[in-house]
Amino acid sequence: MDALSEYKQIEGPEKAGVLSGVVLGNNRYRIKKVSPSMTIEGATRNSCERDAKLANAFIQEQYEQSGHTSIYMGEWHTHPESNPTPSGADVSSVIKIAYLPDNDLPFVILCIVGLESIYWGCVINGKIQKISVNMI
Asked: How much is the pTM?
């Protein structure tokens, strides 16, 4: 996704945001929007915290603009490595999000933007699995 590629962490601290999209049916989903980076001050080259208030406002705005069809689908952040893999902290934080009571989906997507590739994972039943994504 071009919108994510612009956030490659060539230098500076990690960046993070959220993904919103729509349910197509038959276990098919489409990510429609990537939020801008919304990290709390104090991010470092190897860690950051996403601003929950800004993320919620972005998701609500997308929901309203889409006629109530666009919903929260997951998280994105950067890693300063060529081919990123999730850290233990990445996995535990996205699993916590998957079990929040206001999560409407049976999964949460984790996207990590690296310098050469993007890692796509999905938390299902408390475990993260690497997934393939069709770019259209």
From this structure: 0.92
